[in-house]
Amino acid sequence: MSTETQLPRLKFHLVNAFAPTPHSGNQAAVVLFPKDDPRVLDEAYMQSLAADFNYADSAFVVPVNAGVHPPEYNIRWFTPTTEVPLCGHATLATSFILLNYVHPGEPSVLFHTRMRGDVLARLEEAGQGGRVAVNLHIAPTATGSPESSQLGGIIAEACGFSASDIEQVATYDLGGPSALTHVAEHVALGDLQVTPSRLLPRLAADVVVTQLLPPTADTPPDTVRAACRVFGPGLGTDEDPVTGSSWAMLTGYYLNGPGSEFTKRFLPAGSDLSRVTLDARQLSARGGSMTCTLSRDGQAQLVGQAWRTGHGFLETF
């Protein structure tokens, strides 16, 4: 009997995460390995599966101690072309699956990552379309780089807006040197015709274009409306539908980082930004939403809905 036939079939789930409706948000595949399965060490195998699924990201999880409270799992994330240090939507998708289908009744799950420490997720509402809260590491942002003007120019040209619309350029690291551009509120961010290939080769990791928007009649107190689009042609994804890791970065940027000066424009004088909620919308073709706040330990807490769209077994190893 071959090694292949001795190994069990692997269970997988397909999930739309940060999805206000069943067919919106970002798609993720979640692959569940049994404990001590040798395939969990096979990076080429996981990369091949991620390419087969061809979603923005696929999550691969293996139990470390599933019998404790909360259950503990190791997690890794792969795009169709590379491993990434953190993926928010695939983490929310995995949390949704584990807490609804593998550990029903458990309120939370703890993930151990290779590059971003531990991630705690909590189920706020069970079932299809239920809400999950995920605490994610915040990638620090910096402004004032000598190359900021050049980066802003590249992003403006690729995205089709004027360099005069840029209010700030910041850099950070997420799978490589990355950049965000905060643009004025009059820019119709969702309507921009973007050519992601023009970001290369200079911007080979994540590129975020973001803005804050005036409140509507329905905006709650201590809430600021935020929008963004995220591009990653160097990571195998021209435009990401919804990006939890980028929203974690933006939570820090807008609530205790360089972008806080823009947040204060939409709040009463003296507001405590640590108590502010971002009403976050990603203006991709699929669209997605979440709320973002700072947790007590300085992480970003992202809350969004998820829907399982399918599940099954992998037949080839």
Automatic annotation (TrEMBL):
The keyword Transcription regulation does not apply. The keyword Isomerase applies. Keywords: Isomerase. It comes from the Eukaryota. Signal peptide: none annotated. GO terms for molecular function: isomerase activity. One of its GO terms (cellular component) is cytoplasm. NCBIfam families: PhzF_family. Belongs to the PhzF family. This is Phenazine biosynthesis protein. It comes from Apiotrichum porosum.
